[in-house]
Amino acid sequence: MMTFTVEYEQEDDGRWLAEVLEMPGVLAYGQSSDEAIAKAQALALRVLADRLEHGESAHEFVNISFAAA
C-alpha cells in the first residue's frame, strides 16, 4: 500500500499551498486548503499513472491513501 502525506499551509498572499511530501515537485495552490489538497492529490495520481504507463512503478495492483500532515 502506498501512503502519501499532504502537507499544506497558507501563504502570505492568502492562497493555500499543498505538497505531496513523497513526490518531489508535486504541489498545488488553491483558494482554500481543501482546494489545494484536492489539486495536489489529483496531480499525484496523474504522476503515478504516468509512471505506471512508462514502467517506472511496480506492475502489481496499486492501493493508495492520502494523509494530511
3D architecture notes:
Helices cover 30% and strands 33% of the residues. The relative contact order is 0.28. By secondary structure, it is α+β, with helices and mostly antiparallel strands. The model has no long low-confidence stretch (mean pLDDT 88). It has a single domain, classed as Double Stranded RNA Binding Domain (2-Layer Sandwich). The longest helix is centred in the middle third of the chain and has 21 residues, at 33-53. Strand 1 (2-10) and strand 2 form a beta hairpin. A 4-stranded mixed sheet has the order 3-2-1-4, covered by helices on one side.
Short description:
The protein has 69 residues and is of the alpha+beta class. It has one domain: Double Stranded RNA Binding Domain, CATH 3.30.160.
Write the layout of secondary structure elements.
Layout (H helix, E strand, L loop, with lengths): L1 E9 L5 E5 L6 E4 L2 H21 L10 E5 L1
Parallel strand pairs: 1-4
Antiparallel strand pairs: 1-2, 2-3
Distance between the termini: 18 Å
* Helix and strand run: EEEHE
Helix content: 25-40%
Could you tell me the number of beta strands?
A: 4
Broad CATH class: Alpha Beta
Q: Trace the largest sheet across and list its strands.
A: 3-2-1-4
The backbone outline, from C-alpha atoms, is elongated
Q: How would a textbook summarize the main sheet?
A: 4 strands, mixed
Q: How many helices?
A: 1
Please compute the radius of gyration using only Cα atoms: 13 Å
Could you name the ranges where pLDDT drops below 50 across 5 or more consecutive residues? none
The name CATH uses for the topology is Double Stranded RNA Binding Domain
Count the domains.
1
Helix/strand class: alpha+beta
- What's the mean pLDDT score? 88
CATH architectural name: 2-Layer Sandwich
Strand content: 25-35%
